[in-house]
């Protein structure tokens, strides 16, 4: 059975590219338009990994990570930030919130796949 | 709201007079930027939607290419190659044997012709015997009449000899005619066998040479196809890389959108500062100059990204077209009009089959000729036997006449001489028949030998030919199947490539987002530049102070670099290097420089 990965990003085109890449790799993908939408979906959907943007309306990526980690089902899943932001302070903030890794946009499909494979084992 | 900065010493009154105009210009630019930032995503989504389709279709084309090279490099073709190799050896062996047989048979037929020629002399001897016998018969009748009653019975003897001589003559004439007919028939067969044999030999040799070349070509094709799986895979990788470039460039939309939104927010704040009178000329000029740089960067980024998208999509079409052409070439299919290597090979093999069947007919003709020779020689031998019997009969008659003439006494002396002459002639006739019989025996011996040889050989060659024709038929069937599969795949692949190329070109030619964005950004830059120029005229020295507040909203390193390059001491306000370096490939640094795992 294919593993499920959630992508949370307010940019539909970014979600589209993430979904396209992950589906080529054989994963099932759940999309969320922002942090709030993602948290709602995480409450009802079991996912194996979360890939989230940092800057999103309603609830940003850091808030999403904190919320997700509070869920029993997401306590130990890999969460990777996918953002244009590359400041170390932000990365540290993400790490502290519970992020597993950080990818600065734009990503290459093979890069994203390599990260996914690595963190999912 | 933007802090005023140090505007003391500037022309405050002029700033206050110009501020409403600047505010209006910047407000208009901000609105236009907000609109453009929010309306371009649909076009990107449309491109992204097609990308999935193009990628899947590209995979399908690569799959077809793999199937095609796999088909040519597969068991069926390898089996056909092995069988063709065996067939070539077999045919080479057959051609040599058939040619030897034909030459041997021709030699034997020539020998028979020579022997038949030898029959002419003894046959012409029968004519002489007949002539003399008839004369002796007449002389005997005359002498018998002269002697009267004492030579009674000699008259009948003369009549008998005359009749027998006529029979000898008739039978000799028949033998001569049959001999001539047979000689003619043999000469015709000989000419046909030699001509046809030579033709078949040359034809088969030519086709064999061509088929060897075909086998060589097939071997090369097979080798090429066996090694081209890697090529197909490489092309697929290249296509995937091009798709990867598109995926990467598609994200420019999000990056540029954020940058434009940040400019919009900055312009909005300057507007508010101008409206509130808290933003001076220097701050206005500096912020506007900064936003102009950000917009230039955004425009360049988007333009570059869209061009990469367009070029990469076209590259996908080019790669797939190239793969299609290469696969066609590799698998020996030059065109779609049946001009296939396999079609040519199939044609050659059909020619070989026909040549072999023709060759079999030559052997059958030889067999028939031998049968005719044997039959005719048998007939001749019967007639020769008849002549021999007649000779014996004449000899007895002559002996009887000699006895009778002895009883007749001196008066019958002449009849005795005639009887003796008749007896000698009968012996001559028997001797002639012996000569003819001897020659005929020679012909029969040669004919039997050849007939048996040809019969055995014909049976062997025929079964060999039929075996070869059957194998060739199977081979043709196999090659036809391979060819049909390849042609089908080729048509499918060409059709897919054509449709993919058309669809990609349609999508690419419909991409206008970069031009639309560039137009709006250019207009905004022009408007903001007007404000910046006027403001800078009023505040020539850039002392706007701390613009960190602006920097707070940046979410990208490129924005910060632009900000620093215009405000930091190192660059002194010059335009920075606008494009951020792309992330290194994953294999350069395992996951790439833009990836960090905690």
From TrEMBL, chain A:
Limits of the Response regulatory domain: 4-120
Coiled coil: none
SUPFAM superfamilies, alphabetized: CheY-like
Gene3D superfamilies (alphabetical): 3.40.50.2300
4-aspartylphosphate sites (modified residues): 53
Highest taxon of source: Bacteria
Pfam families with a match to the protein in the record: Response_reg
Entry keyword set: Phosphoprotein
InterPro entries for this protein: Bact_response_regulator, CheY-like_superfamily, Sig_transdc_resp-reg_receiver
Name used for this protein in its record: Response regulator
Naturally occurring in which organism (per UniProt): Geomonas anaerohicana
TrEMBL record, chain B:
Source organism superkingdom: Bacteria
Keyword annotations of the record: Chemotaxis, Transducer
GO cellular component, one term: plasma membrane
Record GO terms (molecular function): transmembrane signaling receptor activity
Region Disordered, annotated ranges: 565-598
Pfam families to which the protein is assigned, alphabetical: MCPsignal
Domain Methyl-accepting transducer residue range list: 369-515
Gene Ontology BP annotations: chemotaxis; signal transduction
PANTHER family: METHYL-ACCEPTING CHEMOTAXIS PROTEIN 3 (PTHR43531:SF11), PROTEIN ICFG (PTHR43531)
Family from the record: Belongs to the methyl-accepting chemotaxis (MCP) protein family.
Protein name according to UniProt: Chemotaxis protein
Lineage: Bacteria, Pseudomonadati, Thermodesulfobacteriota, Desulfuromonadia, Geobacterales
């Amino acid at each position: 059975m294919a593993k499920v990965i959630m992508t949370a990003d307010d940019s539909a085109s970014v979600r589209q590219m993430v979904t396209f890449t992950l589906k080529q790799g054989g994963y099932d993908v759940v999309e969320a338009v922002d942090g709030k939408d993602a948290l709602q979906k995480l409450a009802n959907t079991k996912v194996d990994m979360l890939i989230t943007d940092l800057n999103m309306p309603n609830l940003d990526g850091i808030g999403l990570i904190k919320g997700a980690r509070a869920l029993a089902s997401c306590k130990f899943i890999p969460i990777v930030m996918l953002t244009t932001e590359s400041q170390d302070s932000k990365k540290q903030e993400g790490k502290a919130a519970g992020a597993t890794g950080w990818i600065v946009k734009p990503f290459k499909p093979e890069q994203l796949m390599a990260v996914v494979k690595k963190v999912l084992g | 709201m933007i802090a005023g900065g140090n505007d003391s010493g500037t022309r405050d009154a002029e700033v206050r007079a110009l501020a409403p105009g600047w505010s209006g210009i910047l407000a208009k630019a901000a609105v236009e930027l907000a609109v453009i930032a929010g309306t371009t995503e649909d076009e990107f989504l449309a491109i992204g939607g097609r990308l999935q389709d193009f990628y899947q279709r590209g995979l399908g084309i690569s799959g077809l290419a793999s199937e095609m090279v796999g088909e040519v490099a597969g068991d069926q073709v390898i089996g056909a190659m092995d069988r063709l190799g065996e067939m070539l050896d077999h045919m080479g062996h057959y051609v040599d044997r058939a040619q030897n047989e034909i030459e041997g048979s021709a030699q034997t037929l020539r020998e028979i012709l020579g022997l038949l020629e030898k029959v002419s002399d003894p046959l012409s001897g029968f004519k002489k015997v007949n002539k003399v016998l008839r004369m002796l018969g007449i002389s005997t009748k005359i002498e018998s009449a002269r002697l009267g009653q004492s030579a009674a019975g000699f008259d009948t003897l003369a009549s008998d000899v005359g009749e027998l001589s006529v029979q000898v003559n008739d039978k000799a004439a028949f033998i001569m005619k049959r001999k001539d007919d047979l000689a003619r028939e043999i000469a015709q067969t000989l000419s046909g066998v030699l001509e046809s044999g030579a033709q078949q030999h040359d034809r088969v040799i030519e086709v064999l040479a061509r088929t060897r070349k075909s086998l060589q070509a097939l071997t090369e094709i097979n080798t090429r196809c066996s090694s081209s799986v890697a090529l197909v895979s490489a092309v697929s990788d290249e296509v995937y890389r091009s798709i990867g470039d598109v995926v990467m460039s598609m994200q420019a939309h999000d990056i540029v959108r954020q940058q434009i939104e940040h400019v919009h927010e900055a312009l909005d704040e300057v507007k508010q500062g101008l409206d509130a009178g808290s933003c001076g000329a220097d701050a206005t000029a500096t912020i506007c100059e900064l936003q102009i740089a950000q917009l230039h960067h955004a425009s360049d980024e988007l333009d570059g990204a869209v061009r990469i998208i367009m070029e990469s999509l076209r590259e996908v079409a080019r790669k797939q077209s190239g793969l299609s052409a290469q696969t066609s070439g590799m698998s020996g299919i030059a065109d779609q009009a049946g001009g296939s290597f396999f079609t040519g090979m199939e044609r050659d093999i059909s020619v070989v089959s026909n040549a072999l069947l023709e060759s079999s007919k030559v052997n059958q003709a030889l067999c028939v000729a031998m049968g005719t020779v044997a039959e005719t020689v048998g007939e001749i031998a019967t007639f020769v036997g008849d002549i021999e019997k007649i000779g014996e009969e004449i000899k007895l008659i002559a002996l009887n006449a000699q006895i009778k003439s002895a009883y007749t006494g001196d008066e019958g002396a002449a009849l005795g001489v005639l009887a003796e002459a008749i007896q000698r002639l009968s012996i001559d006739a028997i001797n002639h028949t012996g000569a003819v019989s001897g020659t005929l025996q020679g012909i029969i011996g040669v004919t039997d030998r050849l007939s048996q040889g040809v019969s055995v050989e014909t049976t062997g060659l025929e079964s060999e030919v039929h075996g070869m024709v059957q194998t060739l038929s199977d081979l043709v069937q196999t090659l036809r199947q391979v060819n049909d599969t390849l042609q089908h795949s080729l048509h499918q692949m060409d059709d897919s490539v054509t449709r993919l190329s058309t669809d990609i070109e349609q999508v690419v030619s419909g991409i206008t987002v970069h031009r639309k964005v560039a137009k709006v950004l250019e207009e905004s830059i022009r408007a903001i530049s007007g404000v910046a120029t006027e403001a800078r005229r009023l505040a020539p020295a850039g002392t706007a102070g701390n613009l960190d507040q602006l920097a707070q909203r940046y979410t990208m390193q490129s924005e910060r670099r632009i900000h620093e390059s215009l405000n930091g001491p190192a660059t002194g306000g010059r335009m920075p290097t606008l494009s951020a370096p792309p992330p290194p490939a994953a294999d350069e640094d395992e996951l790439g420089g833009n990836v960090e795992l905690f």
